[in-house]
Amino acid sequence: MPFVTVQIGKGHSIEKKRKLVKAVTDALVSALGTKPEWITVHIDEFEREDWAVGGILHYDKHNGRHEETGR
Amino acid sequence: MPFVTVQIGKGHSIEKKRKLVKAVTDALVSALGTKPEWITVHIDEFEREDWAVGGILHYDKHNGRHEETGR
Amino acid sequence: MPFVTVQIGKGHSIEKKRKLVKAVTDALVSALGTKPEWITVHIDEFEREDWAVGGILHYDKHNGRHEETGR
Amino acid sequence: MPFVTVQIGKGHSIEKKRKLVKAVTDALVSALGTKPEWITVHIDEFEREDWAVGGILHYDKHNGRHEETGR
Amino acid sequence: MPFVTVQIGKGHSIEKKRKLVKAVTDALVSALGTKPEWITVHIDEFEREDWAVGGILHYDKHNGRHEETGR
Amino acid sequence: MPFVTVQIGKGHSIEKKRKLVKAVTDALVSALGTKPEWITVHIDEFEREDWAVGGILHYDKHNGRHEETGR
Q1: C53 contacts in F (CB within 8 Å)?
Q2: Three-class DSSP labels, F43-56
Q3: Chain A environment of B53 (Cβ under 8 Å)
Q4: pTM of the model
């Protein structure tokens, strides 16, 4: 009964989510030999103002430094 | 200090949530003998496009096959 | 597809866990009308040294003050 | 690679969140000696109708009894 | 900064875990276009006596009915 | 009712945990103005073989490359 939670930044299209849950499910099937119907995947999206690395909100990192942030 | 997280599909009325947290709290009191005031219940709702079983989003399952989905 | 996580202190017998998962499942069935086979319950036990309220570990609270702790 | 999840009530300004992730990151640095860039903090906000203590939703507690609720 | 939690039954070899984290990371890279070094995977194993579907512990299901359980 | 989960590598002494929960609790008090007795902190330790960044288990990273790993 594997249960997978994927925490990612907000703003992915339903098409990307469709690919994501399929790819993650396939990954577990191939690595563990689990049947697909036993596998649940939960996508948990976060806002940029709710996530920080090194004590700096992604919101600030993004606006201030124009870096990629790996949503 | 039991802490309970209930992950369910979006769209339940406040009346249902009221019943849910009461019933879950009572369940812990009766099974474990904990005092109710020690028990926290957190309801964490998910969108249909953020949940998949067998690699298929509930959103697609619902729209395509008209099955019940156990929200 | 409700998924319930119950975080409780370590040291419950399998008999208590059996009662607990049954009672929690019944609580969801009665409050939400979900079928039992759709409901997963996960018990996640913690050690007393891994849990704190008010900045004080349960381990210390228990040893120092002889209070009940609501495992 | 510490990963910290802070579950709090909804409604904090970005300025408060900025302070929060900084203060929590500093707390881990001082207590564990971890480098700040290894520390991730995730803020997970909940609605008052999705949180209960003693079987009573915060939503009801707040409206009915005019108590502070420790958002 | 995707963060993935994989909850599975206890008892997988380190070799299987090695395959699992590689496969899950590749799945996110291919579905979302994220760089691998941004992706964290956490394996969270549970005991059979700490997991239930339909109100029945996996421990009991396994011992009583000799079914496969989809560890 | 803030609830904080701190996921860190296994092997911290109880003295370090004592400092950690105190420091994290103080951080929330200073950033949010919450009363300490409303704040719960849960330490969730993981094994090196259960955590990966970039598709590589910390267990392998540590053994193969002798790098620091930010437990």
Answers
A1: 37, 39-41
A2: EEEECHHHEEECCE
A3: 37, 39-41
A4: 0.90
